[in-house]
Amino acid sequence: MFDAKSDPSMDEARCPVHAAPDHPKVKPAKVGILLANLGTPDNYDYWSMRRYLNEFLSDKRVIDYSPWIWQPLLQLVILTKRPFSSGEAYKSIWNEEQGESPLMTITKDQTAKIKATMEAEYGNQVMVDFCMRYGNPSTKSKVREMVEAGCTKILFFPLYPHYAGATSATACDQFFRALMEEKWQPLTRTVEPYFEHPMYIEALAQSIERAYEKIENRPDVLVCSYHGVPKRYLMEGDPYHCQCQKTTRLLKERLGWDDSEIITTFQSRFGPEEWLKPYTVEEVARLAETGKKKIAVCAPAFSADCIETLEEINEEIHESFEEAGGEEFTYIPCLNDDDAHIAALSQVIRENLGGWV
């Protein structure tokens, strides 16, 4: 083995000591840290949206109906119409300067900061990169790059604070599928959900305190809006609902607030069946109708702002609140590349690298 901690020249591939002269050259062993997020279309035109939505909505972790029923509906009905409406939604938030979605921009920024933190501590022993479950850069391509770079161990980190089959599990599924294609399969670890990690809760609390300091009239209620899943998933054993509730409770305790000042809701329903309740879009209207005219909304289940926060919360949910008589609506951005968030994610990584570096 080679010590690649601080000498850049140690990145060079070479024959192992005592090996025959014709032995294939081997790069010094590294630990890969692969961050993973949901994904993004390459653009907001019809075909880019259709490719992305087809991959996303064909995932049985996301839509678990029988393919004999679901695929004809998806291919013949949903994917003929939805790419247009989804494309318009993406267009409204698109980062035109960099030609990418905000999720891509933010994930790149997060990765750059985490990479700088890890390399400052571990030097060339680590390689930090990111992938997307759907779209590009693919999980498969990034696993391949890490193996080619000499990563004999990979820490896979889905950037979801809470576990859900439709998020963390499907990201891990794709990671394991990529590993199946490797001749020399690296040792691997996956990072468990960090929804109750003290540094994550602290980062959330700080972001809310900063936002409240800037609001002239204190909101009557803070709505913690989490991405929804069908209620059936909870009944089948998915822990997501309970983990979301715990995050809200821990946040409330850290802020020192009363129960009446903070609530948990769920957004982004899809399809006809019942999802986790209360639904954010309905609950904000109810709040307005019952006299809560000033609210703030945050999205603790998202590590980065995306279509569900920038478009759905800031537009659809905001509109529902105002139409019901609400007067002051404040969206508190996700933690994104905030320093406290990067510190929390970096600490989670350190804890999971134990014995590897």
Detailed description of the structure:
By secondary structure, the protein is of the alpha/beta class. Among the domains are: 42-93, no CATH class; 198-331, Rossmann fold, CATH 3.40.50.1400. The protein is built from 11 helices and 8 strands. It has a 4-stranded parallel sheet, sandwiched between helices. The protein is globular.
Q: How far apart, in Å, are the first and last alpha carbons?
A: 13 Å
As laid out across the biggest beta sheet, the strand order is 2-1-3-4
What is the H/E order? EHHHEHEHEHEHHEHEHEH
Question: Main sheet, how many strands, which sense, barrel?
Answer: 4 strands, parallel
- The percent range for helix content is 40-55%
What structural category do the secondary elements indicate? alpha/beta
The radius of gyration is: 22 Å
Shape: globular
- What is the CATH class of the domain at 198-331? Alpha Beta
| Overall pLDDT level | 94
Low-confidence stretches: none
How much beta, percentage-wise?
Answer: 15-25%
Q: What is the correct CATH architecture of the domain at 198-331?
A: 3-Layer(aba) Sandwich
Helical segment count = 11
User: What's the CATH topology label of the domain at 198-331?
Assistant: Rossmann fold
Number of separate strands: 8
Brief sketch in words of this structure:
The protein has 357 residues and is an alpha/beta fold. Helix content is 46%, strand content 15%. The chain is globular, with a radius of gyration of 22 Å.
